[in-house]
Amino acid sequence: MSDVVTVGSDGDVAVVRIDNPPVNALDRGVREALAPALARVAADDAVRAVVLVCAGRTFVAGADIGELERAAWSDGIGPDMHPLLAQVEDFPKPIVAAIHGTALGGGLELAMACHYRVAVESARLGLPEVTLGIIPGAEGTQRLPRLVGVEKALDMGLTGRPIAAPDALASGLIDHMVAGDDLLTAATAFAREQLARGAHHPRTRDRADKLGTPEQNAPLFAAARETARRTKPHIPAAALFVDAVEAAATLPFESGIRRERELSAESVRSEPCKALLHLFLAERAATKIPDVTRETPAMTVNRVAIVGAGTMGGGIAMACANAGISVLLRDATSAALEKGMESVRRNYAASVKRGRMTDAVMAERLARIQPQVGTDGFGDADLVIEAVFESMELKRTIFAELDRVTKPDCVLATNTSTLDIDAIAAVTSRPERVVGLHFFSPANVMRLLEIVRGAATSPEVVASALGLAKRLGKIGVVVRNLPGFVGNRMMFPYMYETQFLVEEGATPEQVDRVLTRWGMAMGMFAVDDMAGLDVAWRVRQELGHFSDPSQRRPLVADQLYAMGRYGQKTGSGWFRYSPDVGGGRTPIPDPEVLDLIARTATGAGIARRDISDDEIVERAIYALINEGARVLEDGGALRASDIDVVYANGYGFPGWRGGPMFYADRVGLRRIHDRIATFHRELGPRWEPAPLLARLAREGRTFRELDALGSDTAGV
Ligand code: COA
Fold first, then answer.
1. Residue 701 burial by CB count (10 A; 0-12/13-18/19+): exposed, middle or buried?
2. Could you write out the DSSP letters of every residue in 396-440?
3. CB of 284 closer than 6 A to ligand 1?
4. CA 3 to CA 24: how far, in whole Å?
5. With 634 labelled, which of 201, 221, 362, 541 sits at a CA distance of 20 to 30 A?
6. Residues 58-77: tens digit of each pLDDT
7. 284: CA distance to ligand 1 center in Å?
8. How far is Cα 679 from Cα 677, in angstroms, rounded to an integer?
9. H-only helix segments in 579-690
């Protein structure tokens, strides 16, 4: 027998242990080892009960994602888990699943086939498949409603959110919650109790007591279909999941699992499934940096100091406090500090009000943030994050001071979104310990963290930044110190193209409607208004955009800026805002702006015409893709998939489309290239196809293949 499954014993209870690091995925090796191990235990007369437990940090955390990917790119049919699950459920002796960590997907499905489930209090259990664009395909849609009822099963499967052990106990998903950490002893004792009761050991498939009647279920399924349509309109798996649970409630188990298998294959074959699996793997690939290995020493960050208590600084302080890290929050004046802390308090209070946090937790988190005017205590900080106004001069002054007041191994980070890290590092005596940590607003919510590596930034500091990202629950993507890094650099051509589109005859409202319907979380003009037209104006100056007079330059944004229309914060920008409409955040089309656009364009001799929705999508999204190819070419990002992670997590690109580079692959690089070449002829030099895109299109290759080959681009 292979080492991934071992059998031990505690008297008459056999302990079958899965040990398949890192997360005990139920891959072929485990399946092939588990079946004969169970068969031997079944035949062993000395064994009266079985505890199924996992080594390492978690119970089985799912099916093997690699196997899923292969199925998604072929016929959608994954490995058939039925023989193993039937062997477990029909086992002649009671089997107890002993759960710690996370029992997810295939892991929970295996546990539900066992006769009993016990879990430690910290365990979490769920069917997160919908987040990967699939439905549970190992009979989970049939067993979950039998254990927790139709309503709860629908909720768990449609949100994909795991539930905590106390909730699992209350809803019947587990039979016993273990006090303390000694799971194995408790599970063995539980198994003996069941033996002593001499009871019939329940098979989940035989349960029908929670399945409800057609009359009770009809409104539940109708509501669930509505939720699927509203919350995941582009992910077929959501509605397919509801169909599968309905099969559980209406068909005998054997027919139900056949139906689940068909529905599962349909979900696995869907395009959103490929995209979401790609992003899952891309997020994990992003943490792999060639010169940062497991052996690279990473600093554990226990004390953080933040300079600047504005929106960003306050958000970063909350992100740290939420992760249990103590924070010194500094600003230049007590008035600025008080304003920053007030906003932090308001934010937490809103979470309490929504029931996401208790008063006690809020108090604990607030206590971790110490506001102050000076640099007292900075000498003990492991990391300082500067989050002030985007001014090189100011940042350099601050870094020179930080270099003096912090301990020599303290990492100095800047939250700049555009400025040159090396120029900031140059004023310190430790450029190797200077790094960019580009958080996205609101910093306590957004998952993306661009980790900007300067010319001198050491592998240790990159490893520490990646460790911090993980601890904050964020996805760190390491990028090079090139103007605009990855995200903003790509956003500008995209943003300018939407501005050209309105000069040529589209309206901001049309562009935003088309882009959001296509899947972007927000339209480009609404984003500009939210971020501030003054901010975009300043960045244009900093990055020297349009310094070449032969370049076509958008004409309206500068005028809006000159008029003081900075966006949401001034009540007007590309759109109007009114406190009575959506709390001042809902864009209202403004005839004055339409008039300004028309006058400006006509004055500049731009021909106005009707612009089709298709043209808007192509010009906006292809601008993003073409610049993405340039980013890859000059080593701004290590992989195309890193760009996808940046866009899906920081810029509202729809995850179900997999990110801009994945989307480009799926449309076909030749088609994208040819369209860009046409734009180049018709619209001017800004549309020159990126050489890398041209080459891949010519060779009939994809960005995915480029990533797999890994050697065509400069390393980060
Ligand atoms: N199959 C294969 N490998 C998996 C896996 C799976 N189902 N789930 C995670 N891994 C791997 C990751 O790729 C990563 O590998 P790496 O160390 O080489 O990068 C490693 O396990 C750790 O995963 P990570 O996500 O970084 O760890 P975490 O502690 O933050 O989270 C989980 C652990 C289990 C919560 C998380 O990985 C997860 O949600 N996994 C998917 C679970 C799932 O959706 N299952 C349903 C599929 S049926």
1. middle
2. HHHHHHHHHHS-TT-EEEE--SSS-HHHHHTTSS-GGGEEEEEE-
3. yes
4. 12
5. 541
6. 999 999 999 999 999 998 89
7. 8
8. 5
9. 591-603, 613-633, 640-650, 660-667, 669-683
CB of 273 closer than 6 A to ligand 1?
no
What does the alpha-carbon distance between residue 690 and residue 694 come to, in Å, rounded to a whole number? Answer: 6
List the structure tokens of 554: 């958008």
CA 61 to ligand 1 center in whole angstroms: 7
Question: Residues of the chain with pLDDT > 70: what percent?
Answer: 99
How many whole angstroms separate alpha carbon 42 and alpha carbon 48? 9
Q: Which two tokens stand for residue 341?
A: 């802390």
**Beta-ladder partners of 650:** none
Spatial neighbors of 483 by CB under 8 A, at least 6 apart, are 418, 420, 489, 543
Tens of pLDDT along 668-713?
999 999 999 999 999 999 999 999 999 999 999 999 999 986 444 4
109 is catalytic: yes
Nearest alpha carbon, ligand 1 atom 32 = 61
170: its two tokens: 């209350």
The residues near 194 (Cβ < 8 Å, ≥ 6 apart) are: 49, 94, 96, 115, 116, 201
DSSP-assigned beta bridge partners for residue 103: 125
pTM recorded for the entire structure: 0.94
Pocket test for ligand 1, best of 24, 65, 288 (most atoms within 8 A of CB): 65
Q: Is 129 an annotated catalytic residue?
A: yes
How far apart are the CA of 516 and the centre of ligand 1, in A?
31
